[in-house]
């Protein structure tokens, strides 16, 4: 996989990078804990997050497992493919994947909404996008913390007392990312 420079000066590129990294993290969590239920996972100003509903409570040790799986997904260089479905088919797909929060999100969309998904390898997620072209473009990431989910996901996860999320922060320019990781204890960049 040839190295390419990502232009973090471009706000849209930063957004697409973070959003793609969110999907990579969700795919990695689903590989490790297939029973995890997905809620929402957008790009945010300083990185991204994804809310998961899972009996297992994330620990610091889990970060290494998730990061290792994320690296595999990055190295696989999956193309991100967008597709649209009519509402009934979209609901059926998410029910088949046992993703009740995605079904709820679809049901909450306006009747005339375009319902789109992104597929990368064996992972498909309800998503408006946009994204990078492939998972291989996500070169640097670090899982930093887990915490209670944001208010939007709390509304979706009413049945659980303590669903957790993992956040990833990765919006620094390439030279700053290297400097940041050299100062910390994270030395395993992908």
Description:
- With 190 residues, the chain is an alpha+beta fold.
- It contains six helices and eight strands; from the N terminus they run H-E-E-E-H-E-H-H-E-E-E-H-E-H.
- The strands form two sheets. Strands 1, 2, 3, 7 and 8 form a five-stranded antiparallel beta sheet that branches. A three-stranded antiparallel beta sheet has the order 4-5-6, with no helix packed on it.
- The longest helix is centred in the N-terminal third of the chain and has 22 residues, at 11-32.
- The protein is globular, with a radius of gyration of 16 Å.
- Residues 159-190 have low confidence and may be disordered.
Provide a brief overview of the structure.
By secondary structure, this protein is α+β, with helices and mostly antiparallel strands. The chain is built from six helices and eight strands, in the order αβββαβααβββαβα. The C terminus is likely disordered.
């Amino acid at each position: 996989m040839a190295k390419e420079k990502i232009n973090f000066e471009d706000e849209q590129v930063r957004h697409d990078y973070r959003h793609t990294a969110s999907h990579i993290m969700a795919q990695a969590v689903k590989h490790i804990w297939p029973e995890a239920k997905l809620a929402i996972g957008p790009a945010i100003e300083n990185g991204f997050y994804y809310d998961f509903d899972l009996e297992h409570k994330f620990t610091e040790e889990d970060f290494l497992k998730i990061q290792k799986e994320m690296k595999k997904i990055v190295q696989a260089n999956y193309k991100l493919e967008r597709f649209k479905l009519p509402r009934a088919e979209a609901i059926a797909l998410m029910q088949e994947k046992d993703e009740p929060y995605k079904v709820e999100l679809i049901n909450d969309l306006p009747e005339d909404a375009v319902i789109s998904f992104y597929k990368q390898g064996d992972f498909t997620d309800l998503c408006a996008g946009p994204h990078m072209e492939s998972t291989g473009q996500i070169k640097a990431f670090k899982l930093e913390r887990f915490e209670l989910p944001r208010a939007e996901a709390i509304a979706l996860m009413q049945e659980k007392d303590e669903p957790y999320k993992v956040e990833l922060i990765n919006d620094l320019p390439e030279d700053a990312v290297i400097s940041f990781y050299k100062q910390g204890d994270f030395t395993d960049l992908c």
